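Human: We require from you a protein record containing the residue sequence and its fold in token form, and nothing else.

Assistant:
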Amino acid sequence: MADKFQRLSFLKKTRCVMISTMMITVVGYTVIERLKNKLDIPSVNKVTYGFGNASEKLKALPGPDIVFAICKGIPDPPTGKVWPEENFRYIPEVVNLDELPHAATSMLVNNGSHTVKVGDTVTFTVVLCDRQGKRRQRGGDLVRVWLTEPAVGAAVNARVLDNGDGSYTAATTVFWVGRPEIKAAIISPREVIAAVLNRRHICPPVLVNTAIFQHPVDKSIKEETPCNAYPHVTGYDVICNLTEDNFGWHWYCGKPRHDQLQCVDWTAVADRNLWSLGTDINFQSDNRKALCSLDHSSQVLLASIRITVTSDSNISHVIATPPCSRSILSHTWKMDSPTGHLYKNTWFSKNCRPWITKHEIRECLRNTNIALIGDSTLRQMFYSIRTLISCKWGSDTFANGGKHRTTSCNDITTNTSLAWIPHGLPFCTGELPRQYLKTFKASVNILRKTDQRNIIVFHIYAHTLNYHSRVFYSILKDLASVIRRIIADNDNTFVVLKGPHAFSFAKSKDHVIWMPDVYASIYTNFINDEFDDIKDRVMFLEALDMTIATEQWHIHSEKNIILQHVLQILEHVC
């Protein structure tokens, strides 16, 4: 009886929203506003996709119905702004793939001397050509340029300017004496970017988050339905508004079709990769499938340049003078690329020099609570920091308790605590109890209240790449309000916001369609605008330059890159 009462009381506060979905089906293809936006949407009405690489638990569940349609419910952008997806909305789909830029025919040109002095600015021009060697006449491609010399563990990113005519000008500073190689890459042609960003107007997303509903008494009654960050779940006329249960972040899922399951029975989250399962890729045009493959993205130009860097004095490496501990936090936001460089596998910021040792780190973190709230890149930070202090597990290890749950450890000698807390939905994961994922506000509220110093690092990025940029923007605004409250109420709290990073050379086949690298600079601009009034109170951990210069290929950067991020934070804290 008590169970029934609880279920009824929940239903009073959990809205079921009626949704009508209008689709036009023409001989197996859905064409919606074809003349308006030139976007053909292959369709299958209520297709239940196969389970491919789904977990054993999920294989036992009937798959959710998947129906492709134009997304509804995407709000208008802020006044005076345009969603970045709109900038690519009307680019015609390429007919001849040979017209795409090609690494073998494109050129890298040195605009100056092949011998320069350490500390000089050098410039280069990238000229993109198609497979036949014909020069491209328009801009809009994502091009990156960097200098690297692995023999001395050195690398630096270059600032790239789109000239709008198929050429790109790159400029950087040479910080070390040696023989660095200048490399350039076509990360994504504009046609690929257009195909990928236009996919963000179609629901469900490529990697669809799902809700698992289970009857509280009869555990055999279980159903999985697709979810969305705005109130539109294609294929479901009735949806569950689970925003309140998602700790305030907008979240909507298809209402279970089983007559004994209600919205209240939401117990777990999961995801389904429609690209790797074949549901999405099988209903794309051949050209669009080719555009979203790895064949046309992340191509390093065959042409590269070596320059000789000399010095008139005994200075072989240019570094900033003041230690980072004296750096003003607002300076971490104002650095133009390159924001720093790698030398002997250590990151040197453009504005300050590294100085801290492992012994000084332990002393600095005495009587300190550290909370890392975000995705698995901050879980990497957890591991990295744990190697710097004598930290004993205060919870199950990731191996025992699962990799997507709050984890902590403590150093009783120095009274230092360290915790990683995963952020809320959307979050890509195998089947996971829903309460493990919390919004930034809910996560901050569960932190231990003490008079000790607190270091809180926030990050949101990879798990939103699958969605329209409105989702990232909405979560970012919520995060900004949380951080404003923290710095207003806590003088003893040091707040860090980690920015987007690059994983340009990913090797997974679904990388381009699921996690396009083009959003990195777009979201960095969002962050800069949203935090403009509190940049003197929050450290911005710029991660893009380091991960571009070191040619990171995985969403999880190499261990030394994560360590350098950690040291950047600690050098400002200590």
The radius of gyration is 25 Å. The chain is about 20% helix and 25% strand. The mean pLDDT is 86.
